[in-house]
Amino acid sequence: MKRIFFVEDDLSLINGLTFAMKKEGYEIDVARTSLEAETLWTGEKYDLVILDVSLPDGSGFELCKKIRQNSKVPIMFLTAADEETDIIMGLDIGADDYITKPFKLAVFLSRINALLRRSENFRRQDAELTSNGITVHLLKGVGYKNGEPLALTSNEYRLLCLFMENPDVVLSVEQILGRLWDSDENFIDNKTLTVYIRRLRMKIEDNPGEPKRIVTVRGMGYKWDTANGG
Predict the structure, then answer these.
(1) Domain assignment present for 229
(2) Alpha-carbon dihedral of residues 70, 5, 189, 187, nearest 10 degrees?
(3) Which residue from 14, 108, 124, 154 puts its CA 20 to 30 A from 118's CA?
């Protein structure tokens, strides 16, 4: 049974969503403040974290940063903070999804299922990828550049794996979104993908301004370039 850590201070929302998620077969632990969340948090215990941004004693963004220091657990923001800058910040600091209120319950549950499914699929892999000075241990979920560990978010890690599994193949934006976020989950858009690729380049490229590993093929998409990547 999958266990979800739900950090939210709105009691009516807690009651409604906890009931819905339990009906789906999930176990739910709830924290209503940042302090309570930090007290309860145990990375190995949970399969998904759902965070509100605005909490009575702090920010869900700060909690997300702390979780990402030692865990690749999928993180979803569920919040009324719907400004584009908030969404970009949430994704940049390591969230895998960002849902703004109000929302439809069916969509919320579908996106939980999608996050858990993708996470499970990646955990099942047991190979190693090596190219352009980058090594990824798929079973462990970790990546290295020239032997040094990379601090990757879960989505950055999945994106890196996708590129490395398809060397010198031009992947269109639609192909990338379809492979990583399922073709019918159009809540991930081109702008969000651009953020992920920019962040990934900052971590793996020698000069992110002139990328050699993940290159843009104008009018077509992106590819993992083994000829010039190092």
Answers:
(1) no
(2) 170
(3) 14
The pLDDT of residue 228 is above 80: no
Q: Above 60 in pLDDT, residue 183?
A: no
Residues 21 and 117 in one domain: yes
Answer whether residue 230 is part of any domain.
no
- β-bridge partners, 3: 27
**pLDDT tens for each residue of 72-96:** 889 999 988 888 888 888 888 888 8
Range of the domain at 96: 3-122
Rounded to two decimals, the pTM is 0.60
